[in-house]
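ok here's the first one, seq then struct tokens
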Amino acid sequence: MAKRAKPAARRGPPASKGPGVAAGELPTLLDFVRYATSHFIEAKLVFAHGTTDPVAEAAFLVCETLHLHPDQFEMFATARVTAQEAKQILDVIARRVATRKPAAYLVNKIYMRGLPFYVDERVIVPRSFIGELLDAHFSGESGEEGGSLIDDPASVEDVLDLCTGSGCLAILASRNFPNARIDAVDISADALEVAQRNIAEYGLEDRVTLHRGDLFGPIGNKRYDLIITNPPYVDARGMAELPRECRAEPKLAFDGGADGLAIVRRILKEAGRHLTPRGGLLCEIGRGRELLQAAFPQLPLLWLDTEESDGEVFWIGATDL
């Protein structure tokens, strides 16, 4: 326990930079990552927002606090941290534990496919598998397992991103399909404000158009060569059991109804009327594969896996809808 008789400490630098950390005890970036990892494990934090474990999250927060891209961590791992930087790092570590907010909200940033996107509490923290699948199966190359689902990405003229949230998938799609015009729809005005910020950051105002409304409502009878969507798909039980980190995110972005598929069903029933003959739907549904297949046994859904997902995203062509 601290003793009362230590007034001399006020005449010099503070004796510590954070709870239980004396000056100079954590000299390098790597030391702070180890320290944060231990605290995150002790606090039993949940990692589901762009990082999957305490080490990765610690490295992410340290790098963002120091304005470094995550890919630069190894380069600077043994670099020494200044006193002011140490104070900032310890502060964000403490806030992550105390608030249980997703790390992305604390630094207002998340990375997808190596690209940074602004996020705050108005949008769900992006962690869709669709970005990886766009690279793997929509490149026009047949080297990936299962081949390319679109022969020539440059021929794609119109793309629709339903439930766009922060706009990250629309922006990634703009890179995969360089000649496409992209409509991005969300029912949340707050989310669209964040999406507009990200679209402006990437200079895509002339290619990505935002629409507020319920699914296909705002686009009329327009048809698309590709529809991508990461809609709400958490079922009632999952909503009741959401970890504290996820409760900091907009409920609207999670709630998929009693079985999690209420919105997915609507998308499947309406998508065919909004696809060109050569088009298709790429949809993420989480872990509802068996339920969806039981509900639509006539549909030849093609399930696409990633390094971290198995049967959570499907593709179906327009002709099959």
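and now the second one, same deal
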Amino acid sequence: MHVPLQVADGSHKFKKDVPFELIIDYYNFDRKLRFLILDFIERIEVGLRAILCDIYALKYGAHWYLDANLFKNTAVHSDFVARVKSFCDECEFQFIKSYRMKYDTPPEPPCWMIMETLTFGQLSVLFENLKGGVQKSNVAGHFKAASPVLESWLQSINSLRNFCVHHSRIWNRKFAIKPIIPVKEGWRFLDKIEDNTNWRLYGILSCMIKMMENVNPSSDFKPKSKELFKDYNHININYVGFQDDWEKEPIWR
């Protein structure tokens, strides 16, 4: 990918008119944006755990995640259950130990305990592997999406999260795992959708904001991100997919 600060000849040399201070500013901007995004993803993760637990436990009981009949791919489900059992056997979490000291049928703890031990990626795979139906649609509905759309959002968010936690650059990055951005009336939340919207950061962040409209409507992600953009107004955010009139989009107001 062509980097605007470097000479476009593959040498990775910086342009002569690029001051070192500007390079540091780009680095600091990217670092602060990653921290801001991780905080937002944390809210999404907590919300997903709670909603998934509530909806499925009320219908299928506290140990619904052990029921292979609820899942599309039995091999993926078997692997998931095996990982859960192995984790419970080896973990030092007191709430897991306390459950096993008191109960032995089943030896695996209820879903609200297990959800606390899953990574965002595992949550994403768990949701994707659930069979379609009323419960799955209800979970997706809490995040203002259809089930297949939410699946794509979770996958793309997990990819973004991995870049953030591993301190990888997200400015001017093309993301291979792209979220579905709805274009149908009633589902659409961006007026202007370009060819690169869903593989740039702007598209993923827009989906994340849409997800949290019901779950955490008082989120401070938008004002904090706008403040960051203002502090670094010399950083070109077009390279993360933000169009010149992005603040006019209702979802970003």
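notes on #2: Residues 20-60 form the longest helix (41 residues). The mean pLDDT is 93.
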